[in-house]
Amino acid sequence: MEDLPLLDKSAVEALLRARFPEGFVPLSRLPDPFALHDMDRAAGRIARAIREKERIVVVGDYDVDGVVSSALMEEFFERVGARAEIFIPNRFEDGYGLSAELVARLEADVIVTVDNGINAVEAAALCRRRGIDLVVTDHHTPGPELPDAYAVVNPKKAACRFPYPEICGAQVAWFLIGALKKELGLTLPMASFLDLLALAIVADVMPLRDINRTLVQKGLERLSTSSRPAFVVARERLGKRRFTAEDVGFAIAPRLNSAGRMGDAGRALRFLRAQSVAEASALWDELEVLNIKRRQTENEIEAFALRSVSPDDPIIVAAGEAWHEGVVGIVASRLAGKFGKPAVVLSVEDGRAKGSGRSVGQVDLYGLLKEASEHLEGFGGHKMAAGLSLEASRIDAFSRAIRKAAGRLDASLFVPESSVLGRLPAEAIDWELMEILQRYEPYGEGNPKPEFLIEKIKIFDAFLIGREKRHLKLTVGVKNRRFPALFFGCQTLYEPGTDARIQGSLQINEFQGRREIQILVNQIMVIK
Questions:
Q1: Least confident of 210-219, 230-239, 507-516
Q2: Which residue among 1, 3, 88, 162 sits deepest, i.e. has the most Cβ atoms within 10 Å of its Cβ?
Q3: Domains contained in the chain, CATH given
């Protein structure tokens, strides 16, 4: 910690500005939708289907990105007066994405996938045989064979020269809407979708750089004032007037995800598309119940998983009989955070295993799965998160293979990028500093929220809060300047008058019309 630079306000601004060598991209400089390979074919075919009133089916996914993608498409088709069926597969009954089994049940002239489909090779072949034109829009890493579809729009395709490929499925769907707007000669304000779009970008943990930063920043502004009943209710229930990326990631996204994880993602779609505050409020209550159930299920599976894994392995692999498929991804994320290593969690049922993995630092999880793919039936995803399936009898062989692959990686890849900017005198904390920090929002993946080592600060009081008294609320400061502070998960009480160094971040807390600077604490080091 001593080698951290001593900061003043100008140094803080210089460090944050250096994160954006490309500068800030204005909305007016977003890439043309047709920069995405095959977008001309995709937009042309869907536009023809709209004009000729053909049967269009949109197939989404059950996570936030897939649900938002589906909501965007549904809203677009409604606005242009076209009919389209929106279908989000049920995780437990239909599996992931567009499958051949699903194609066999759909009656359509055109099928459009959003946030899935890049590996739907069998489904595409069946579409060909049935005379259905398939338009794939996705952002996940392509496998060795692309589906033989009418059009495949994916910024990660080898043939694609889109200038910023790190975008989520909902962004691809949004660019598709932009292309359709041009194709159909519509006057459609693309910014009107940004409140929805911001949810997906943050929830799918896209890097908040380049065009993503711009879209999330503008989307959060819109979300904070949006008249959509869903967001009116979210502001009311969460007590928020202004949303940050953290609010989306930790408060809104888990509730939306709980629908697809615990049952039917249609609830989350209906919430986002609710036509009245009463409807949105009732659906929020349903999502809240599912979210509580999700957390309980996660806690149970995490406890089981911890008993079966070795912290010395270069990648954590845990498997259990009939573990809830909907939450294994979150358990993998928890294990990755706990051990500082990638983690894969599998649910075993009827001789087959399905699961999810999450990565850490700069470790390419998709690449690791590729190295162990001889043991897998299928896998897909991207660098930081992936899904997989295999025969239960191959779990041990898969574990050995992926551990061997991870063991060859350089240890530096496992280290998360530190978000501690440097040492900050407590006297430097003021509203001018907060304005500097706000200038470089939103914070999240690729632009971590700045943390500081706040030196020589005094603890004036400390007490436990929360239903189970599991969190610490403090008043800290120097001389006659005092700040409220929160240390979640800490139950250690400190004597008034204790001198300390605090590692944490700064935020503006608004309550009942009052604004104050608050410190979110990650670590307290007592000065003896």
A1: 507-516
A2: 88
A3: 31-278 (3.90.1640.30), 309-414 (3.10.310.30), 417-526 (2.40.50.460)
